[in-house]
Design a protein that fits this description.
The protein contains seven helices and no strands. With 222 residues, it is an all-alpha fold.
Length: 222
């Protein structure tokens, strides 16, 4: 009988042997196939690839939404920030629209439920009918006031370097007394209220035009 070799003398497979090499090739091929179906991440850093959006947890944070602006939750599913060369102007626009929406929603509720100025021109409770009932003069005064504010902040909006939304001289007497943390909280609160007001204005318009109901009428539609 032929003697069997000692177990210690049997060569073990080294990672560089053909079997180990074949396993590595198969694994690499599988990973490459899986990567082909993953969404492409163009122009993002390694840090951004690993950071997920707070608002949409299954999407990565857009490159320009780095958290430096108040209210930045990484929400940009349409990639609009990618086509903006400077988000500062976009933030100015968002704040302006939000402030107008807050005034509009407040005015609509006031028009329906709170006292009006005397006279037939101000008697209607329909917030959209009120635009035409007050006549050209009142509307012109409103548009003129808006135009003056826009012109006064034109240079700062497009070419300035201040914080978006800050109107010099309009901060209020107690603003300078706030700490940096309190000011940051106030900026955060404003942008949240702006976004809520824009949604509320859309809802108020739907309530008035399509449902023909009062803004504070919460009964079910007929």
């Amino acid at each position: 009988y032929q003697t069997l070799p000692d177990r210690a003398s049997i060569p073990e497979h080294h990672p560089s042997t053909p079997i180990a090499t074949m396993k590595s090739v198969i694994f690499a091929s599988a990973m490459a196939s899986a990567a082909a179906f993953a969404p492409a991440q163009v122009g993002r850093s390694t840090v951004a690839l690993n950071e997920m959006s707070k608002s949409i947890p299954f999407l990565t944070v857009p490159e320009k939404l780095d958290g430096s602006m108040a209210g930045d939750m990484g929400f940009d599913p349409m990639g609009l920030s990618d086509i903006q060369t400077d988000l500062r102007y976009a933030r100015w626009a968002e704040i302006k629209h939000g402030r107008v929406a807050m005034l509009a929603v407040t005015g609509m509720v006031w028009q329906e439920y709170l006292p009006h100025l005397p006279g037939a021109a101000y008697a209607t409770t329909d917030p959209f009918e009120a635009i035409s009932s007050v006549g050209f003069g009142s509307n012109f005064q409103t548009l003129l006031a808006i135009g003056v504010l826009e012109l006064a902040n034109w240079e700062e909006t497009f070419n300035g370097d201040s914080r978006p939304g800050v109107l010099k001289g309009w901060e209020g007497g107690g603003w300078a007394k706030k700490t940096e943390k309190q000011q940051a909280k106030a900026y955060e609160q404003e942008i949240v209220h702006c976004r809520l007001a824009m949604i509320a204005f859309i809802g108020a318009t739907h309530q008035t035009f399509l449902l023909h109901k009062g803004l504070l009428d919460f009964s079910s539609p007929n």
